[in-house]
């Protein structure tokens, strides 16, 4: 499985494309808003002859969902989120203009993800872990054989997701990290929603929020 990160929008949000040797691809948290960003995403998919088969959100804050409608319409895929984040998603149109995204176009979910689900594409399987705290319906996607976790805004390199947004809760987030993320092997690479990747082992040793 290959992990490609494209960073979009003023929030510098990491959009991930996961694909394997079958060329089937999933898009996670498309943050592409401007036309040039969307063209960059399209070009990567076309240049690598990928077939987009699933559209996933770790959570539904505005910076992670700006490209949902574009991806859903362009590649004829439905949006998959955790049901507890649907209220977060439905709130986005009420504040998108205030954040400088007046052309935000909404896509609503066609399926829900739950803890323990297996997201399959090509020859690859991602396990869904429920990790609330930053958002009420936050999930991460874990591939054990590849030791990869697409972590959204739960755990960053020496930091954690903010908990001051509606539906956020600090104690819940810390519990999610310690019980779900830190249960993964130390050599698992975490690809976060912002900033550089890290590993579980590194964060256990160096993350000041988790000592």
Automatic annotation (TrEMBL):
SMART domains: Lactamase_B
Highest taxon listed in the record's lineage: Bacteria
Keywords assigned by UniProt, alphabetized: Hydrolase, Metal-binding, Zinc
Stretches assigned to the Metallo-beta-lactamase domain: 12-194
Pfam families: Lactamase_B
Cofactor(s) required, per the database record: Zn(2+)
Entry-linked Gene3D superfamilies: Ribonuclease Z/Hydroxyacylglutathione hydrolase-like
SUPFAM superfamilies (UniProt xref): Metallo-hydrolase/oxidoreductase (SSF56281)
GO molecular function: hydrolase activity; metal ion binding
CDD domains on file: metallo-hydrolase-like_MBL-fold
Annotated protein name in UniProt: Glyoxylase, beta-lactamase superfamily II
Organism of origin: Pontibacter akesuensis
UniProt lineage: Bacteria, Pseudomonadati, Bacteroidota, Cytophagia, Cytophagales
